[in-house]
């Protein structure tokens, strides 16, 4: 290795331990090719504010955070009663009772479920407002997922106050001809430190 590479590697290791010491490394969870904010920050935002919050986040030393799409958020929903996901979107043309069967973890045939309805790697209050997605739903509306019962509904971008859980795409590297794996936060930090010096 050249001296600049060694210096970059050293700085990457130091940066990682600074993040671990500050608790920031524990504030993120990688699921598939996405790195998620482990828990929302408890603040509530309209849709515009939620976008601004995620776009400006530097969590775990990264600057490419964004508000997730509706499909990405729906992919986090897990119904503890075994009801298959992703669930349908809340449809204003259906009755509330039919929407509860189609678009939430509820439903007589599935039985009771435990709230919150979210991937167990992530933290979420059992009862919370919807979490904003970047996906719009018509004039002045955007989709948000309610992890209390798993439903995805549209609300007014300005007047509805919801949560923001930021996400970022994780670079992948080929492991073998068998497929790809996501870079771990440690390797990602090391690579980001070494790459500019190569």
In words, what does this structure look like?
With 198 residues, the chain is α+β, with helices and mostly antiparallel strands. It has 2 domains: 1-33 and 183-198; 39-169, no CATH class. Helices cover 26% and strands 19% of the residues. It contains 5 helices and 8 strands. The protein has helices at 3-22, 47-55, 70-74, 96-103, 185-194, and strands spanning 28-31, 34-37, 131-136, 141-146, 151-156, 167-169, 172-176, 179-182. The strands form 3 sheets. Strands 1-2-6 form a 3-stranded antiparallel sheet, with no helix packed on it. Strands 3-4-5 form a 3-stranded antiparallel sheet. Strand 1 (28-31) and strand 2 form a beta hairpin. Helix 1 (3-22) runs antiparallel to helix 5. The protein is globular and about 45 Å long. Mean pLDDT is 80; it is low at 3-25 and 172-184.
């Amino acid at each position: 290795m050249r001296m600049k590479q060694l210096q970059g590697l050293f700085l990457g290791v130091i940066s990682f331990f600074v993040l671990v010491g500050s608790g920031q490394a524990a504030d993120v969870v990688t699921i598939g090719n996405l790195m998620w904010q482990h828990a929302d920050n408890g603040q509530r935002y309209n849709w515009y504010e939620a976008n601004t919050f995620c776009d400006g986040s530097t969590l775990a030393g990264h600057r490419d955070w964004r508000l997730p799409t509706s499909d990405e958020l729906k992919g986090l929903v897990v119904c503890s009663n075994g009801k298959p996901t992703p669930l349908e979107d809340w449809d204003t043309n259906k009755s509330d009772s039919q929407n509860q069967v189609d678009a939430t973890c509820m439903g007589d045939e599935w039985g009771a479920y435990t709230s919150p309805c979210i991937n167990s790697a992530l933290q979420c209050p059992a009862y919370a407002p919807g979490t904003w997605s970047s996906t719009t739903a018509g004039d002045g509306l955007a989709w948000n997922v309610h992890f209390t019962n798993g439903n995805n509904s549209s609300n007014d971008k300005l007047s509805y106050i919801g949560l923001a859980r930021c996400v970022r795409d994780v670079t992948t590297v080929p492991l073998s001809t068998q497929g790809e794996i996501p870079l771990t936060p440690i390797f990602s930090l090391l690579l980001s430190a070494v790459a500019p010096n190569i």
